[in-house]
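Chapter review. Work through the record for Single-stranded DNA-binding protein before attempting the end-of-chapter questions.
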Amino acid sequence: MFNKVILIGNLTRDVELRYLPSGQALAKCGIATNRRFKDSSGMQKDETMFIDFTVWGRSAEIANQYLRKGSKVLIEGRLTLEQWTDQNGQKRSKHSITVENLKMLDRRSDSEQGHQGGTGYDQAAPTYNQPQSTYAQPAAQQQYQAPVQQQTPAQQPVQELPTIDIDEDDIPF
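Structure tokens for Single-stranded DNA-binding protein:
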């Protein structure tokens, strides 16, 4: 069996950080996620889910430092069932998320709106750039360059690389 949950949404309240007697950091918060769909009559509907989550360790401290009510986040973790007895002796339970990965999705300017003095979070949302491959260049622009070895002028052998004449029609890709 596999228990994995990935949610994107906005925090419903500020992060509540506390430390256990062992010194381990524990943060609790909630996330609101939206789903837009058409009902059977074709009307556009919005459904909002409110889910509590728990973050442990250094991630809990970072969440407390940089996140505020309304911050946009992606959380990845596992669904857990919390059970307790309330003040009236009634057994209660709820599902929540135990977070394994948390990503801040707000840009700095977004996170500072409504938080006077800034949050100290000065990094934009993650951007992933793939390295450019030589295969992405047109064949006419590709050139072979021999590796350069550091040698003194007296040690450098005189060597010329042969020129290979390849017709573009011979290249299989």
